[in-house]
Write a structure and sequence with these properties.
- The chain contains five helices and five strands.
- The chain is α+β, with helices and mostly antiparallel strands.
- Helix 1 packs antiparallel against helix 2 and helix 2 packs across helix 3.
- The longest helix has 28 residues.
- The N and C termini lie far apart (48 Å).
């Protein structure tokens, strides 16, 4: 599922952002941990973008995939520069630990990142393991019968 929010970078819009993230979380049935990570990372990026001072339109796109969320922030030039500088100066920030695969595109003022869903990844791994065991088990039975 893909969802999109367009919002001005002023602090009065933080409630709109939080409502959007919570609504998306409900629609795709995210667990509370993953929903919380998405909210924390989105709020922090928005706060940094707001500190740029310019009234720029920001666009957040969230794409729910099988075992992760992919988020794209299309920022205005001033907001993009402010967020990028902050991230470069704070490489030990919790943002780097909460999200993975950070992508910067200077041409489009795009910041993208991935949030992994470990519970879904583990569940998929268990399903794959059962499929493999079933396949191997069937082959062993078949091999014994010949």
């Amino acid at each position: 599922m893909k969802s999109n929010l367009e919002i001005l970078n002023n602090k009065q819009n933080i409630n709109k952002l939080e409502h959007f993230v919570e609504s998306f979380s409900d629609q795709v049935c995210l667990d509370s941990a993953l929903s919380g990570v998405l909210l924390v990372v989105s709020d922090r990026i928005f706060e940094i973008a707001c500190s740029a001072g310019a009234n720029e339109t920001l666009n957040l796109q969230i794409n729910s995939q099988t075992d992760c969320l992919w988020c794209n922030w299309y920022l205005g030039k001033d907001s993009f520069n402010k967020v990028q500088r902050w991230m470069e100066d704070n490489t030990d920030s919790m943002l780097y630990r909460l999200a993975n695969n950070w992508v910067w595109n200077d041409d489009d003022f795009l910041l993208g990142f991935e949030i992994l869903n470990p519970s879904l990844s583990q569940q998929l791994s268990v399903n794959r393991r059962h499929q493999l065991m079933g396949y191997l088990g069937n082959n062993k039975k078949h091999a014994r019968s010949t």
